[in-house]
Amino acid sequence: MFRNARYIREHRRKPTANSQKLIAILKSIRVRLRPRYIRQRKPKGKSIPMQKTRQKILEYLKQHGEATVDEISILLDELTPVTVRHHLDVLRSEGLVGSPEIRHRASPGRPKYVYRLTEKAEGLFPNNLQTMLSYLLDEMKHTLSPQQIRRIIQGVATQMAETTPLSSNSETIETRLDRLVAYLVEHGYMASWETRPEGFILLANNCPYGDVPGNHPEMCSIDVSYISMMLGMTPKRLTHQATGDVQCSFLIPHPE
Q1: Which residue, 95, 122, 149, sits at the end of a domain?
Q2: Over the stretch 47-88, which tens digit does the pLDDT of each residue have?
Q3: Which residue, 122, 137, 168, sits at the end of a domain?
């Protein structure tokens, strides 16, 4: 029977404190392991001042929390407000800077509008989440039984599946795959699917957990669990990056 997101919500167990901590770290580490905006390669023989300018804007917002167009203009050697707004518009279109918000003044005058980084932009800067996640998993293994760890992993997978839109039994497998790939891409995967004579192949060309699955292969079982929940069937793993393959791939047979 295909168990959709509504069924999962109605029958899921209350998440434990450990599973809530783990899923919070997973969400953060996935955002932060996406390809970095500030590490774009410079084309040979061509300058890219636009990208360097936007990098300075991102770094300034990271350091100060917020900034107005005038403040950014001073930072960028008196770049005109029109040009600053253009850079901000580009960063907004890429989801790195949020919409302008009013900064309340203590004295009368025209309101000032400030810009701030989005959660996505926070992933462009160094962090220690992989190490923290690895230590958390080590501690769980030292203090919990294998059965308890499996229960936590299943709880994390269930919570992840719950964040997707409700699906119905009448949905085609193609529709479910489209929803799944959109979810994976949003959470740090370079994911896609394609049709083969034997069924559908789900592809993931990167691992959003970095090197963690090398010492903690149970991380991969979390993804397999929520992928199964979202598809309504358990896919067959074909290749696995953690064991040396170039990508992770899964076979989903054609519905009978």
Answers
A1: 122
A2: 334 478 888 999 899 888 999 999 999 988 878 999 999 999
A3: 122
Length of the chain: 256
Q: How far apart are the first and last CA of the chain?
A: 13
Tell me if 45 sits within 8 A of 205, measured CB to CB: no
Co-location of 27 and 41 in the same domain: no
**Residue 255: which of 239, 224, 232, 228 has the closest Cα?**
232
Domain tally, the chain: 2
Are residues 19 and 71 both part of a single domain?
A: no
Question: Which tens digit of pLDDT belongs to each residue from 199-240?
Answer: 999 999 888 887 888 888 888 888 888 888 888 888 999 999
Q: Both 48 and 169 in a single domain? A: no
pTM: 0.56
